[in-house]
Amino acid sequence: MKQTILARRYAKALFAIGKEDGKYEAYSEALKAVAGLFKTNPEVEDALTNPLYPLDVRDKAMAAIVKSMEADTIMGNFLHLLVEKKRATILPEIAEEFQIMVDDVKNISHGSVVTAVELDTELQNKIQATLEKITGKKVELTASVDPSIIGGMIAKVGDLVLDGSIRTQLASLKGSIKGRE
After folding, report:
1. CB 90 within 8 A of CB 14
2. How far apart are CA 54 and CA 21, in angstroms?
3. CA distance 95 to 97
4. What is the pTM of this model?
């Protein structure tokens, strides 16, 4: 179960400290690294979150991770706090929320474009430039292919959705024809 609100609170607290110290990018990388450990090594997540292990064992496991990362004191204390408060399970979500805050400060949005056929680099760059002009932010674009949209494209950046797919146009046409009956 996602605990986005709780993760956002922890991320916001660490981000405030990181921004003040000018280390928020380093903290973001550290959080991503630990979240990556959770995904690639389920036993690491188990060692940090399993209530069957005593708190001191879980804390020692986190201490080993902090030492191997060569994290600064604040980041180390933050990670230990998550273990002590039994919140280590939401570490990947905290990393996501923290990255959103970093991107917001850097004026970066993440977007996606879905097309029926593979886009060449030149066209993808034009789409990215257009989306940057519309949103007023730097857009990091992810392209994917979905033949079911028949043609055209669907571009999404944040809450903005530009749907110029043939599938949607056909559905709209079908709806207007049905409406006339």
Report:
1. no
2. 34
3. 6
4. 0.79
d(CA 116, CA 165): 9
Question: Domain span at residue 78?
Answer: 4-104
Rg (CA), the chain: 22
d(C-alpha 131, C-alpha 140), whole Å: 10
> Which residues have CB under 8 Å from 6's CB, separation 6+?
87, 90
Q: How many residues does the chain have?
A: 181
What would the pLDDT profile of 119-147 be if each residue is shown by its tens digit? 999 999 999 999 999 999 999 999 999 99
Tell me the C-alpha distance between 1 and 121, whole Å.
38
Residue among 133, 115, 135, 134 nearest 124 (CA): 115
Domain count, the chain: 2
Q: What is the DSSP letter of 41?
A: -
94 in Cβ contact with 31 (< 8 Å) = yes
Answer yes or no: do 56 and 75 share one domain. Answer: yes
91 and 24 inside one domain = yes
Contact 141, 127 (CB under 8 A): yes
